[in-house]
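Quick one, T. Sequence first:
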Amino acid sequence: MNASSSAPAPLRLLLVGATGAVGQAALSLALAEPRIAEVVALTRRSLAPQAKLRNVVADLAGLPEDADCWKVDAVICALGTTMKAAGSEARFAAVDRDLPVLVAQRTRAAGATRFALNSSLGANPSGNFYLRTKAEAEEGIRKLGFPAYTIVRPSLIDVERSEVRPGERIGLLFARAFAPLIPRRYRAVKADAIAQALLTGALRDDAGERLVESEALQN
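C-alpha cells:
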C-alpha cells in the first residue's frame, strides 16, 4: 500500500459562529488545514471570499433539514452571545443552547461524525442560568450519538472586541494584570487557543467524548 492510499480522506467542515472572535480564528485555522477540502461557513453576513471557503448567508434556524450545508463530515460550533446583547434569558438560550443543538441534530442526521462545541468553564446543570444553559447545550449534543465529539470549556476570552462589553473589559484588565496570581483554570484564554482546540476536536480520529478544560488552553 502506498502512502497516498493510506492518507486520511479530505473532510468537509461546517463552521457556525464564524464572525465571532473564536469563530474567526477557527476559520483561519480550518482554511489552512490540509485535511480539510472545504469549509462551509454559515453566517448572517457575507464573509470575504477565500480559497476552500463556501459562505452560506442565511438564517440558521430557517434552513430546511435537507439543506446541502448540513452534509458535512465535521462541525465546529462557536456560537455565543451575552445576556446584554441577547436582551433576555429566552433569547440568550436560543443562541447558546437551541441553535447549537439544532446544528448538531441536522448535521448528525445528514451523516456528520465529529462535532466540536465551544462551551464555558463551569458549565453545570445545577449552576446559574448562564452555566445551566451551557450545560444543557452540551447534554443536547451528547445525546445525539456523534461517534466523536469535543466540548471546549474556556474561561474568559482574552480578545479586543469592536463592541463595548464593559464588564468583560474590566474582567480582562484584572485577568491580565494579575494573571500570575490567578489559578490556571481561571485565567483568560486566547481566542486562537480555543479555536485550535475546536479544530483538533473536529479532526480527531478517536471515538467518544473529549472534554477540554480551560487550564489545558493556557500557553
